[in-house]
Design brief:
Elements lengths: L5 H26 L7 H8 L25 H15 L6 H17 L8 H11 L4 H4 L7 H4 L2 H6 L4 H12 L6 H18 L4 H16 L10 H13 L3 H8 L5 H14 L4 H10 L4 H14 L6 H10 L5 H9 L13
The structure holds magnesium ion.
């Protein structure tokens, strides 16, 4: 017999899973034209970014992309989602590395310059040179792990150790470090909690628990207290001072900067998805990834997605979000996956 209210709950979960992926795409696309630029350069080039913009000719990374187009953050998130959906009972490091390589070849073939990030690049080169997948990710501390982790949060119940273990497994080949896994675990837990219907405050404290669990799972390389960095960002954001937040936390491709910054921005605007993503687009340096991470978390927590932004993303990109959100959710059952094989 169906539980009364069950269809409504399923509907809410689907809306939040979709929201996570759509929020991610919106944050990515808003930050696309400003990525790698300083705050000053962004202001000089674009004024204040307050919506989707095309990149300028000669942009070092996003040259050739038009307003609303997404980048590696969204594409690699959907790539990881497809790998997890296609093979839900385990994770094949070598196949995943091949997915990333094939993705990069496709980007090159289109004449675009937004290729694999530093940790993924180094790890895949090492793998191709014969290094074992247990070793290839041992120096990967950058934010590629957190930027593409949303599918793990959608498909996994909000238990801190469970989330952290799955994050560590999917990150192993490229980002097998305490810093990267802790950051990605915090992000995945926010998303998992959002889909479970938890509110922002509860999700935030659960995310810190997952962050500490994740910290222990990778090689002891990079930042040793990611949860402390996130707490610091939340504290500064709570004081409402964006400049102080940027000065203390930073906005680079390092997980220890961009992941806490995404949390800080959400706190600064009390979880308002669009406001957070506009701040991210103007914040400097890794704008698109900070926006993607903040957007995934805000969307999963029920943050309102402006209809015009959603329409623009679907129009400007040939990506499928709804079926992927549904397929990931269908894996979110304690009995559907054999986690022994994920170990
Ligand atoms: Mg990007």
């Amino acid at each position: 017999m169906a539980m009364p209210g069950a269809p409504k709950e399923a509907e809410n979960m689907e809306a939040r899973a979709y929201g996570a992926l759509m929020g991610l795409a919106i944050g990515d696309a808003l930050g696309m034209p400003s990525q790698t630029l300083s705050r000053q350069d962004i202001a000089e080039r674009y004024g204040r970014i307050d919506g989707f913009r095309a990149s300028f000719d000669g942009h070092p990374v996003s040259h050739g992309l038009s307003a609303g187009q997404v980048t590696d953050d969204t594409e690699q998130t959907l790539l990881l989602a497809k790998r997890l959906i296609g093979q839900p009972n385990g994770f094949d490091d070598v196949a995943w590395a091949q997915d990333l390589l094939a993705w990069e070849a496709d980007v090159r073939a289109k004449g675009l310059a937004d290729l694999l990030g530093p940790s993924s690049r180094a790890a895949i080169d090492a793998l191709l040179a014969g290094t074992s997948p247990e070793e290839t990710g041992r120096n990967g501390t950058t934010n590629g792990a957190a930027m593409r982790i949303a599918p793990v949060g959608i498909m996994t119940l909000p238990d801190a150790d469970h989330v952290a273990a799955r994050v560590a497994r999917t990150c192993r080949v490229t980002h097998n470090t305490g810093e990267a896994i802790a950051g990605a675990s915090a992000v995945a837990m926010m998303i998992s909690c959002g889909i479970a219907g938890k509110d922002f405050g509860v999700a935030m404290s659960d995310a810190l628990v997952a962050c500490r669990a994740g910290q222990k799972l990778g090689c002891a390389v990079g930042e040793t207290d990611m949860a402390g960095r996130i707490e610091r960002a939340l504290e500064l954001a709570g004081q409402g001072d964006e400049e102080a937040l940027v000065a203390a936390i930073g906005t680079s491709v390092a997980s220890r900067e961009s992941v806490p910054m995404a949390f800080g921005l959400l706190r600064l605007v009390s979880g308002d998805l669009w406001k957070a993503l506009i701040l991210a687009a103007n914040i400097g340096d890794d704008t698109d990834t900070i926006g993607a991470i903040a957007g995934a978390m805000a969307g999963a927590l029920g943050g309102e997605i402006p209809q015009a932004a959603e329409a623009r993303i679907l129009e400007a990109n040939s990506i499928e979000i709804r079926p992927i959100a549904r397929a990931l959710l269908s894996l979110r059952s304690p009995v559907a996956t054999g986690d022994a094989e994920w170990a």
